[in-house]
Amino acid sequence: MKKSRTGSPAGEALASSPVATVQLPLPLLDVLADTRTAFFGLCLDAGQQVLRTMMEQDRARLCGPKNAPNPDRRAYRGGSVRGEVTLGGRRMLVPRLRARSVAGRELDLPSFAYAAGRDPLDARTLEAIAIGVTTRKYRRAA
Length: 142
Prior knowledge:
Layout: H1 28-63, E1 75-87, E2 90-101, E3 106-107, H2 110-117, H3 123-131, H4 138-141
Antiparallel strand pairs: 1-2, 2-3
Helix pairs in contact: 1-2
């Protein structure tokens, strides 16, 4: 018979004291609800960051690069004001970036107009994110 490294014959269990099994009830539904809430919050935060980046790109397209003098510019940066968009079925306050034409007229940023007009982070989109649908395949999955 072959001996193992521990000195006991291979295949034999080591002599040990009786084993006690302890079962702890886990609030599994609470854990799943907390996970869903945390995931939803993560998606909302990411959605706000994406919207801000898109608005900044729209404003750069209208006004040109930030802090770069341009005598032919069509618009100026105008700071930001509070705006409302719907993300995940919730109305949220977000900073709406502003751009003003050289004549002083307020210019709309297409990304904010799109986000304010509908909910880009609806339940179907959240479900697709959760199951790992890539953005390239989202249209086909929808």
